[in-house]
Amino acid sequence: MRKQISAEKSRKIDNLFIKAEKEKNIEKKRKMIRDTRKSAKRNNLSIPKKWRDCFCRNCNTWFNGKNQRIRVSNEKISKKCLNCGRIYRRKLK
Question: Coil, strand, or helix at residue 60?
Answer without folding.
Answer: coil
